[in-house]
# Entry
Amino acid sequence: MALFDRLKEGLSRSRATMNEIFYMGGQVDDAFWEDLEDTLVMADMGAEVAFSVTDDLREQAARENLTRADQIRDALATRIAGEFTPRKWDPFDYLPSCVLFVGINGAGKTTTVGKLAKVAHDQGTKCLIGGADTFRAAAIEQLEIWAQRSGIPMVTRKRGSDPASVCFEVLEQAENTGAQLVLIDTAGRLHTSADLMSELGKVVRVTRKRANMPVKVILVVDATTGQNGLSQAKEFNDALDLDGLIITKLDGTAKGGIAVAISHELKLPILRIGVGEAIEDLQRFNANDFARALVGAGEGN
Ligand SMILES: Nc1nc2c(ncn2[C@@H]2O[C@H](COP(=O)(O)OP(=O)(O)O)[C@@H](O)[C@H]2O)c(=O)[nH]1
Ligand SMILES: [Mg+2]
# Structure
């Protein structure tokens, strides 16, 4: 299946939410604009974005004399695409590069590290995986399976070890072996979020200090956690000064608008999105494609 089709399939639940206001022949009247605003809020796009998008489109419709709901769809996609914070770089393309993956438990960090490492390795990039989620033995084993399956070296230590010292060792090995892309998995669960943030802060500091390549901190967010995901993202960003986002499980929600809200509010670029469990479902993010798939622009459905 082509990538855009996979994206569309992944976002089909969200699109169903958006579709309701775009039935053919629908008239653009006051009720339509109210419905549109409500729909955008319900899709978790955030009140600020919902209001400004609706206001702008309303003006555009008046200016261009758009009277049918289906005529608004393309304009809506363009407007939504513009709400994302643009990406200026991609740490998986600009090498050498070290990326730390942070986020709460279950967000998709470990599988994302495994998938990105495999894709880069298959393209001939020399990768190294760091298993710094020493909080759970299962996390280390899960990552080892990915590493072994793809034939990618991995550095880790036994459960309970200091994650910052794992990072130190990972970078030492990267230097010794000439690894170009270093992907480090971290833990998502500690007793309190204050403990987690201070531990991750130390991991980031040690990694930056030891690295002789740029270090980026990427938050992995599970889209199905909705507004909670947004508050988590703010907390992580305040504590760690994030560089970018990966939003997973967009296939598991009808409120894919959360991706817009998080990128817009935190002023952070989205680097990849997850629209399913397969490797191909971890896609590069393109704001126009995402917005078109979300609102079903250009196909009359
Ligand atoms: N449906 C779906 N599942 C995903 C996606 N990304 C990750 N997952 C699943 O989410 C679960 C938790 O992922 P994991 O990497 O262990 O999360 P971690 O605790 O943050 O390391 C796994 O079963 C993944 O296969 C996605 O985009 N869509
Ligand atoms: Mg994990």
Observations:
- The chain has a mean pLDDT of 94.
- The longest helix spans residues 47-64.
- The first strand starts at residue 97 and ends at 102.
